[in-house]
Amino acid sequence: MKNPALARFARNRAALLGAGILIVVTAAAIAAPWLAPYDPLAVDLGRNFAGPSRAHLLGTDQLGRDTFSRLLYGARVSLLLSLLSVGGALIVGVVAGLMAAWYRGWVDAVVVRVVDVLLSFPDILLAIAVIAVMGPGTSSTVMAVAAYALPTCARVARSAALNASSHDFIMAARAAGASTPWILRRHVWPLCVSPIAAQSTVLLGKAVIVASGLSFLGLGVQPPEAEWGAMLSRGRDLTRTAPMGAFAPGVAITLVALSFSLVGDGLRDAMDPKTPR
Known about the structure:
Elements: H1 4-10, H2 13-30, H3 32-35, H4 67-103, H5 105-119, H6 123-134, H7 138-165, H8 168-175, H9 180-216, H10 228-235, H11 244-271
Helix pairs in contact: 1-11, 2-4, 2-11, 4-5, 4-7, 4-9, 4-11, 5-7, 6-7, 7-9, 9-10, 9-11, 10-11
């Protein structure tokens, strides 16, 4: 039998476009060692500020490094940062949300208050606060972006678990003496997968923006590592001399973030049984 959710997703052209872009970018990032014509860290001061050519498709930066090669390797860093940060936020947030929805009482109150406090901070300010405590770097960037994504993950998981736990068959399982881990694993969690998957996809796009923003400010991934936000920061003052240094990473950040958002919206619509056919 054909999966109705998959069929609804396949009819969403915007979601398919976003998925296609993400597949291409991910494949390019994985194959960067074979696709990149130059070492992304190789300095050649004799060819700095070179324009696009057959030798350098997107030109070179102020140190003569190939922009196209750095863009490919930057995709690996940006995608990995977003996956690690959102993955960590999902693990902590989903567990906290499920526990809050299941046990209620003071557990729910503590989780809700912590989530409210974290959500009261603007996204980038919360990430900067984490960086200020841990110091700039790749690992601290992952923690900062995870702190930004954590409250959203916990809130979505809690809401989905509250709806799931109100079903009669779950109440019957509790009355029959089934253990909490068994009920959560067999009954509650499968009902929470759809909203969490859709929201996490959107969060991946936002994570790319936040991580790039931190690197743009000099607080994230540090030079000479190739990362889109850092490339955009160094290229913004050279838009007249070497415009591709800022244009290429800016377009890459926009496309990836938009694609994640389109896929997330498509997953939400496809997995929602109330969506009109």
